[in-house]
Design brief:
The chain has 70 residues and is mostly beta strands. It has 1 helix and 5 strands.
Length: 70
């Protein structure tokens, strides 16, 4: 094998979420039902980024943060 596993696996861009998506959960309501893991809520507003512990999906918060989050 000439490629490493890191090179063979494409990096998925972060899914952009905004205030209307809060509270953020993975999988999201619009995700396909055939490949779901247990729903987990991700704290994204304070840090601006979150990664799902089940599937590794990355989320990035965009826009105005809700009040109380700096």
């Amino acid at each position: 094998m000439t490629q490493s596993a890191a090179q063979a696996t494409p990096v998925q861009p972060a899914i952009k979420v905004s205030r209307k998506d809060l509270p953020l959960c993975c999988p999201r309501p619009e995700d396909a039902l055939w490949n779901m893991h247990p729903r987990v809520y991700l704290p994204i507003a304070a840090g601006g980024e979150a990664v799902c512990p089940y599937c590794g999906t990355k989320y990035r918060f965009t826009g105005e943060k809700p009040k109380g989050h700096h």
